[in-house]
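Before a colleague's protein record goes any further, I have to sign it off. Thanks in advance; the entry in question is below:
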Amino acid sequence: MTDPAPRTPDHPVDPAFPARWSPRAFTDAGMPPADLLTVLEAARWSPSASNTQPWRFVYGLRGSTGFAAIAEGLTGGNRDWAPRAAALVVTVAQTEGRDAGGNPRAQRWAEHDTGAAGLAMALQAERLGYRAHPMGGFDPAALHRALAIPEAGHRIMAVIAIGRQGPADLLPEQHRPRETPGPRQPLAELAFEGRFGG
């Protein structure tokens, strides 16, 4: 198994954050439904503006028709490795809701909250001994159709592959060089006091 290269934070943080990364090499180990529900339960408790909880998830365990439909909607190199994962989860932001009077209302924070839920899933998966890899390489129209996700007011944000990490040689050769944790930009290039750009 590929050991994550050490990543040194600029400031002290819980080790879970720099230890988390998104491998592509998964073993053929399955995932009990209860473990996947625990991962989704963690997402349920994510921060949510006005408690709107605008995230929705469509998931499948490997071998199910749902998993096959999600895998079919992947594009590019993701099709080479993601079908080995134990589970695939589609994260959907519900971008339209209702106000107190029942009138339609844009939920402009939905994408932010759905992203937070995705991180909660990844960290919970790590606690259970799995790895999670969010992907942007998918065909939104195909997934909307195949999974009956409404087009109006729903935006597919990512597909997350979850499984037990395996050695890089499980991957097609072209993906092996990338099977290592990536570096991060210095915090000073990302966070600014008082004015954007410092």
User: Anything to note?
Assistant: The CA atoms of residues 60 and 67 lie 4 Å apart. The domain at 32-166 is CATH 3.40.109.10 (NADH Oxidase). The helical segments are 16-19, 33-44, 65-72, 78-81, 110-127, 140-147.
